[in-house]
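Hello,

Our lab assistant flagged a job as stuck in the queue for most of the afternoon. It eventually completed. Since we weren't sure the result was trustworthy after the delay, we are filing this so someone can double-check. Below is the sequence as submitted and the structure that was eventually returned. Let us know if re-running is recommended.
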Amino acid sequence: MRFSIDKDTQLCMSLSGRPGNFGTLFHNALYQELGLNYIYKAFTTSDIAAAVGGIRALGVRGCAVSMPFKEACIPFVDEVHPSAGVIRSINTIVNDKGRLRAYNTDYIAVAKLLERHGISNTMGFALRGSGGMAKAVAHALRDAGFSSGHIVARNAAVGQRLAGECGYGWCAELGSLAPQLLINATPIGMAGGVEAEELAFASDLVDRATAVFDVVAVPAETPLIRYARNKRKTVVTGAEVIVLQAVEQFILYTGVRPSGEQIERAFAIASVALQPK
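-- returned structure --
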């Protein structure tokens, strides 16, 4: 294992309004296990243009991008991968000798998890939320062939725009609808928030659903996921999303694909960051 840094060490980083420790612990654990001369550090900024310019100017190899910067970064990169282009939301920047390429590994992770959990595209769905993560989910659903669904968003203009982009309906609340697949892409249930103890969907809707997907990663077991497990529903967790998208970022930064066992060990180290404080 490598524990020291030198002039050739490559820096990877994250930019977030509220930096966390998961990415730092996860990436550094894999770097050490694989003997890679990399180091990962989390940052925030009040000047996104200067921050992205610094990635280019200082030769930072890669940068994870979280809210509220997923859209704000786009004007400052050179190339946008199809995983991020249509969504107009990025979560990863890769610096190839001064050329900045942007990706959305959230989209990649969601698409893979829908397939991994055997969630049929014949299911009708409700996706709560209309922000950057909701965009990634909605486009992944559309590209996976889900034809019947609703975007549930209080912001009518943003919700209707996302629904229109993907060919789905929009509603402020579900009302009498009872979709088979429920997906939360809002902060409801997130540790430390004002709605930390709330269900993103009413319990009777969960009772009638077949599968529940919550993108909130902290805590790993949100109230929604905990309730759905107790009802023996198929569940997809935010912890799964954050791990899979981080693995995709790791591969983009290093060109190395870690084994399943290596990923599990890194997650065991980083999972403490997913526990509520």
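-- support follow-up --
The delay was a queue issue, not a problem with the job. The result is valid. The radius of gyration is 19 Å. The chain has a mean pLDDT of 94.
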